[in-house]
Specification:
With 128 residues, this protein is mainly beta. Strand 4 and strand 5 form a beta hairpin. It is globular, with a radius of gyration of 14 Å. The strands form two sheets. Strands 2, 4, 5, 6, 9, 10 and 11 form a seven-stranded mixed sheet that branches. A four-stranded antiparallel sheet has the order 1-3-8-7, with no helix packed on it. The chain contains no helices and eleven strands. The protein is 0% helix and 50% strand.
């Protein structure tokens, strides 16, 4: 049973920082693409960032590039999203997700439909 558990969300003022964590368990995640998506009220879920578990390749949406940094800790089986210079428009529920990038190499990392496993989400609220 694959489990992804997010933590680290909260309320922060504009310009502040938060670090989200995604603890993965239930299998070996080598070859997996780990992604962060977000969904604001009344909007569709959108891609924020992704990382290849073993290769360390990172990907960012234009809206977060230069402000967010994704990373992973092999020993802790955890993926992080460091969010700096937060803006009110970053307010959303943030979800961690995963899929096997080796088996499903034709899938696109920026497409939510590519991901097979999802966490429960963590709320991030940025006040102006």
């Amino acid at each position: 049973q694959v489990q992804l558990v997010e933590s680290g969300g909260g309320l922060v003022q504009a310009g502040g920082s938060l670090r989200l964590s995604c603890a993965a368990s239930g299998r070996t995640f080598s070859n997996y693409i780990m992604g962060w998506f977000r969904q604001a009220p009344g909007k569709e879920r959108e891609f924020a960032s992704a990382i290849s578990w073993s290769g360390g390749n990172t990907y960012y949406a234009d809206s977060v590039k230069g402000r967010f940094t994704i990373s992973r800790d092999y020993a802790k089986n955890t993926v992080y999203l460091q969010m700096n210079s937060l803006k009110p428009e970053d307010t959303a529920v943030y979800y961690c997700a995963a899929y096997n990038g080796l088996v499903y190499y034709r899938r696109n990392y920026y497409n939510a439909a590519s991901y097979d496993y999802w966490g429960q989400g963590t709320q991030v609220t940025v006040s102006s």
